[in-house]
Amino acid sequence: MTFTSGTGKTHLATGLGIAMIQNGYKTKFITAAELVEELLIAKEEHKLGAFEKKWLKNDVIIVDELGYIPFSKTGAELLFQFFSSRYERASVIITTNLEFTEWTNIFGDEKMTAALLDRLTHRSHILLLNGESYRFRQSLKQKENEE
Q1: Which of 43, 44, 51, 107 could be stapled to 113 by a disulfide with Cβ–Cβ 3.0 to 4.6 Å?
Q2: How many CB atoms sit inside 10 A of residue 49's CB?
Q3: Closest Cα partner for 86 from 58, 127, 114, 47?
């Protein structure tokens, strides 16, 4: 089962991020695709260490839309390394439409995916948002109002 789009995952993550900022926490929001692109550039420029050190200054990183856009093998490995480096050092919020069993499709390696999920789910809160798309409901209401 794939989780439904439009159920409020990004909205909830953004709200949590705003609350974190209001409570004095350094928070960064980025899509998974943007993060992988930045990691690839940092690797190419031989600046991965500095990149990860800079990101560790954030108390919370919100990574939106994991699994929407496929990554290269190198990109997936860098993302694994990025998440692993934050393990028990700083918080991560991840939004995705994929179940954990589908994460191997993102990272391309069962053992690496299992290791990552073990770290990410340790001491975590997992929220499953499923149901009808908010945007779809809104479109239906708009259509009804037009008729």
Answers
A1: 107
A2: 10
A3: 58
> According to DSSP H, which parts of 23-98 are helical?
32-44, 48-56, 73-86
Alpha carbons 50 and 145: distance in angstroms, whole number: 54
Is the predicted pLDDT of residue 144 greater than 80, yes or no?
no
Residue type, 78: L
Q: Which of 118, 107, 99, 134 is nearest to 10 (CA)?
A: 134
Q: What is the pTM (predicted TM-score) of this model? A: 0.85
DSSP state of 1: -
Please give the mean pLDDT across all residues of the chain: 89
CA distance linking residue 126 with residue 133, whole number of Å: 20
Query: How far is the C-alpha of 137 from the C-alpha of 122, rounded, in Å?
Result: 35
Torsion angles phi and psi, residue 29, rounded to 5: -115, 130
Which residue(s) pair with 92 in the sheet? 61
Model pLDDT for residues 105-128, shown as the tens digit of each residue: 989 999 999 999 999 999 999 888
Question: Three-state DSSP class for 62?
Answer: strand
Sheet holding 91-96, edge to edge: 27-31, 60-66, 91-96
